[in-house]
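Private note to self, pasted from the team thread so I don't lose it. Backbone tokens:
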């Protein structure tokens, strides 16, 4: 029997479904039972998906709508979002990001300053700066951005990647994707002009993690070291981009491609290039001059942090975040000096932070939290590792915090926070900036928000974050590390790059 054209649509089931979904959403957003924000987001996503399926069932089988109306509604339900929206991956909290397909690009900030070429500024040759610790001594930044805001020097499009910039002289280098090739690109700092670009076959792509290389290059002398997302390690000439040597690190380590791609920014020490691979050889060292293998060590699965050289218990050690373990290696031989169980197999990105001669601070996201380890050298040459404290209240997922005066400042699960290294207590949390990257410059903290990509100026103390200024740079998701040379900040996303000049105070 056909449906009567006068039969009204039965709206009550839809109203009940939406009401229950609304209550469930409100409860999930308000309760504090989730170990990390990504679990909350996935729970909300589940509510949305289940509610959508129930509404679809209601519309097709319980609504009493005419068949033509049902089909028209089904087309709108499925086709309209797909036609109007484009998927742009996930945020650091696992929230899907969409953009309108036909939206006009917003007018970019106009360059307000022209820099003189050849101006000498401090170098920023590797991930997290000259000392690989996310701390710069200067310049002295002006705290009043309302009167003297940053000035845009240049802005331009760039290939996809989560690599950051490194800078030596007037050359800034990063990695990016160009079709089916991974690229290392060299830009003139003062103008943004491309000085050279070299390509290598390879393309990593993931619907959640995005496209392109993940690791930030390293510059040593006249050489540039890069690691592609598929495991290609390259040594290039800084002046021309011509390759000195290339190694298939993944093949050397018999390592499988990690879920989110290889992401280890090369560490150069004592004539060796050291990278993390996982597989049967978790850490590898190559000769800087010719790329020949020097040593391999460890069997821990790879993760997404980079190797760091620290002096712990009066001995130089390479510290690595591996999957479910922290591992220390001898820089000369690669020998494993000690290990400490850590995490539950989910990504570790943050760097270790030394505190005094024997203690190291570690932090991870996904509910793992932070801990302070004490490493002691024993008479037989071995090392004893003791956990001083552990807390789930500070979780560094993507961004790496910094230490100053016995306190750690940085993003904890998307919120800027301060942790006391003496006992692991969190002094405060202030400002939901998402999973952007930051640097400590003198007394001030430069922090990128995740989306939109705003540059924040903070002066954090144990008493508070002291937010001083905000300067918009991007509309897109901003995960890439920033770089600072003198009074210039170079920042980028997977679409565009900018150079801005910071207001400073002349030194006396």
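Design output:
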């Amino acid at each position: 029997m056909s449906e009567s054209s006068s039969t009204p649509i039965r709206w009550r089931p839809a109203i009940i479904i939406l009401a229950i979904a609304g209550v469930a959403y409100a409860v999930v957003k308000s309760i504090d039972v989730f170990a990390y924000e990504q679990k909350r987001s996935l729970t909300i996503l589940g509510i949305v998906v289940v509610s959508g399926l129930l509404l679809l069932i209601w519309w097709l089988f319980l609504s009493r709508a005419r068949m033509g109306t049902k089909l028209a509604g089904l087309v709108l339900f499925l086709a309209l979002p797909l036609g109007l929206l484009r998927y742009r991956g996930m945020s650091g909290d696992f929230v899907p990001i969409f953009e309108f397909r036909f939206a006009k690009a917003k007018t970019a900030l106009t360059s307000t300053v022209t820099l003189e070429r050849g101006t000498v500024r401090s170098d920023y040759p590797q991930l997290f700066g000259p000392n690989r610790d996310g701390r710069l001594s200067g310049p002295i930044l002006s705290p009043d951005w309302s009167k003297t805001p940053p000035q845009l020097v240049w802005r331009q499009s760039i290939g996809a990647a989560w690599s950051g910039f490194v800078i030596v002289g007037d050359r800034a280098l990063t990695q990016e994707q160009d079709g089916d090739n991974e690229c290392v690109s060299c830009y003139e700092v003062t103008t943004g002009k491309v000085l050279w670009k070299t390509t290598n076959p390879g393309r990593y792509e993931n619907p959640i993690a995005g496209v392109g290389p993940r690791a930030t290059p390293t510059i040593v002398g006249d050489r540039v070291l890069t690691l592609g997302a598929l495991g290609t390690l390259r040594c290039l000439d800084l002046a021309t981009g011509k390759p000195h040597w290339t190694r298939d690190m993944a093949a050397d380590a018999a390592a499988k491609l990690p879920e989110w791609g290889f992401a280890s920014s090369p560490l150069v020490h004592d004539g060796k290039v050291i990278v993390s691979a996982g597989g049967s050889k978790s850490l590898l060292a190559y000769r800087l001059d010719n790329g020949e293998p020097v040593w391999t060590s460890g069997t821990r699965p790879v993760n997404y942090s980079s190797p760091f050289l620290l002096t712990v218990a009066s001995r130089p050690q390479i510290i690595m975040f591996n999957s479910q373990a922290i591992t220390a290696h001898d820089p000369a031989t690669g020998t494993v000096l000690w290990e400490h169980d850590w995490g539950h197999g989910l990504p570790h990105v943050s760097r270790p932070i030394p505190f005094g001669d024997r203690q190291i601070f570690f932090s991870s996201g996904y509910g793992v939290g932070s801990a302070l380890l004490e490493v002691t050298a024993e008479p037989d040459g071995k090392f004893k590792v003791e956990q001083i404290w552990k807390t789930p209240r500070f979780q560094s997922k993507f961004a790496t915090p910094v230490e100053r005066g016995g306190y750690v400042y940085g993003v904890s699960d998307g919120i800027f926070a301060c942790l006391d290294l003496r006992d692991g207590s969190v002094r405060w949390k202030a400002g939901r900036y998402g999973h952007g990257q930051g640097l400590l410059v003198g007394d001030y903290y430069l922090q990128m928000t995740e989306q939109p990509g705003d540059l924040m100026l903070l002066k954090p103390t144990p008493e508070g974050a002291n937010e001083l200024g905000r300067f918009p740079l991007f509309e897109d998701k901003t995960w890439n590390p920033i770089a600072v040379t003198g009074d210039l900040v170079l920042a980028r996303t997977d679409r565009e790059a900018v150079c801005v000049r910071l207001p400073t105070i002349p030194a006396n």
